[in-house]
Each structure stands twice: as structure tokens, then as C-alpha cells.
């Protein structure tokens, strides 16, 4: 499984009012754009346009810029999303049964 880390470069951004964005400063969600190499980031009730680095597309599943074949944005590109390895179920261990003790326990006398 390959990992792709992308830093957003500082650039002049275009922000417009978008009903999908709230004015909550803690809610800075990412939204897809009609252009695969771009995405919108909600900032104080406005959707601000950002560009992915050259050659990458915005992946709505991960909320990051990704390889085109993993972002699955462009219908002309083959889509091969990496899947997580299958989970392995491990059976619970069986309880260990011990034979009854033959020791005689005498409580302390007062």
C-alpha cells in the first residue's frame, strides 16, 4: 500500500459563498470541484478553491490529493482504488479446564 503525503502550497485563493459551508470555524470540510485537480475548502462559510499538485486529483474518499487511478474522479481514467487488506478473524481461545484441587484448605483459627 503506497502512502502519498501532499503539502498545500500558499497561493492566492478564490473564495465564494457556498451553502454547503457553515460559518463554524471548526467545520473546515473539503468538497470536490468539477475539475479533478482542484477542491474546495470551507472557511468561515465560504468555499475556497485550492489546486492539487500537478498530476494529482482530489480523492473524496480520503479528503486528499491522490493519484488519478485512486481518486476515481475522471471517468476516462481507470479506477483502481486500493483496498485495505482483508481482516483476519482469530478464534477466541478455548477455556482451559483444570482438574479439581485435592489440597485441603484449613481456614485460620481465631
Automatic annotation (TrEMBL):
Cellular component GO terms, alphabetical: extracellular region
Pfam families per UniProt: CBM_14
Protein name: Uncharacterized protein
PROSITE patterns noted in UniProt: CHIT_BIND_II
Coiled-coil regions listed: none
Superkingdom per UniProt: Eukaryota
Molecular function GO labels: chitin binding
Amino acid at each position: 500500500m503506497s502512502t502519498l503525503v501532499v503539502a498545500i502550497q500558499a497561493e492566492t485563493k478564490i473564495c465564494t459563498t457556498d451553502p454547503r459551508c457553515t460559518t463554524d470555524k471548526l467545520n473546515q470540510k473539503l468538497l470536490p470541484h468539477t475539475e479533478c485537480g482542484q477542491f474546495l475548502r470551507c472557511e468561515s462559510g465560504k468555499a475556497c478553491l485550492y489546486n492539487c499538485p500537478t498530476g494529482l486529483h482530489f480523492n473524496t474518499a480520503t479528503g486528499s490529493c491522490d493519484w488519478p487511478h485512486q481518486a476515481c474522479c475522471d471517468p476516462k481514467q481507470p479506477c483502481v482504488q486500493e483496498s485495505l487488506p482483508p481482516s483476519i478473524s482469530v478464534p477466541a481461545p478455548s477455556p482451559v479446564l483444570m482438574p479439581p484441587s485435592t489440597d485441603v484448605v484449613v481456614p485460620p483459627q481465631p
